[in-house]
Amino acid sequence: MLVHGFIEGSRVNGPGLRAVVHLQGCNLNCPGCFNVASHPFTGLDHDPAEVAAWVVRANGVRTLDGVTFSGGEPMQQAPALFDVIESLSRRLPQLGFGMYSGYSLRELEAGRFRTTPEIAQTARREVWASIRSFLDFAVLGRYVATRPSALPLRSSANQELLLFTDRYCDHDFAPQEVEVHIEPHGLVQVTGFPVAGLPV
Ligand code: SF4
After folding, report:
1. How far apart are CA 135 and CA 29, in angstroms?
2. Per residue of the chain (200 residues), what is the pLDDT tens digit?
3. How far, in Å, from the CA of 61 to the mean position of ligand 1?
4. Nearest atom within ligand 1 for CA of residue 155
5. For residue 78, how far is its CA from the centre of ligand 1 (angstroms)?
6. Alpha-carbon distance 22 to 6, whole Å?
């Protein structure tokens, strides 16, 4: 699976301390997208087991509340995403799972989303149902720059925060904030919601 970035511990991508897996590749082209570098379907192809192992390792360093999958567009690599979540739910059943997707619930339920590799619409519906069965929450819908939102985890007002289990409630989702992560080798990652602009 193509991965844009991995953050071992973030507090701005859902409740508590969470690992964040940013998948690489998105062809939805929302105008004004904050992360255009995540759009090309290029880069190293990681085995889902390797990605799951990163989370297991991160959880060994600090106790995580959960994992959030972000983009790029996670559902455009749905089969590999399922493999990662399924593996983690067995190995770390205490974790909660969340996902951002540019697709609406209606599109996902109908199997109207692109996947890499391509699979039939029936199989897309099934893989979404399987992924959804592991998710505690999802933020769904395109980013629409003309409809800005200050609601937790939602960049635009059309997006929905859906709770699929009773693990979390609306009050667990903190106001939008941004984090800057500086790795020991100098890589800088900005994550969250830079509502006041990116730090310079
Ligand atoms: S779905 Fe997300 S990553 Fe893709 S273009 Fe829209 S905002 Fe950007």
Report:
1. 25
2. 999 999 999 999 999 999 999 999 999 999 999 899 999 999 999 999 999 999 999 999 999 999 999 999 999 999 999 999 999 999 999 999 999 999 999 999 999 999 999 999 999 999 999 999 999 999 999 999 999 999 999 999 999 999 999 999 999 998 888 888 888 788 888 888 766 555 44
3. 31
4. 7
5. 16
6. 6
Q: Token pair of 163, please?
A: 């709770």
Ligand 1 binding residues, C-beta < 6 A: 26, 28-30, 33, 35, 38, 71-73, 102, 142-143
Q: What angle do CA 161, 169, 107 make, to 5 degrees?
A: 25
The full DSSP string for 5-65 is EEEEEESSSSSSSEEEEEE-------TT-S-GGG-S--S-B--HHHHHHHHHHHHHHS--S
Report strand pairing: 178-182 vs 96-101: unpaired
Tell the residue nearest (CA) to atom 6 of ligand 1.
Answer: 30
Q: Where are the alpha helices (DSSP H) in 69-120?
A: 78-91, 105-110
Question: What are the structure tokens assigned to 97, written together?
Answer: 């799972």
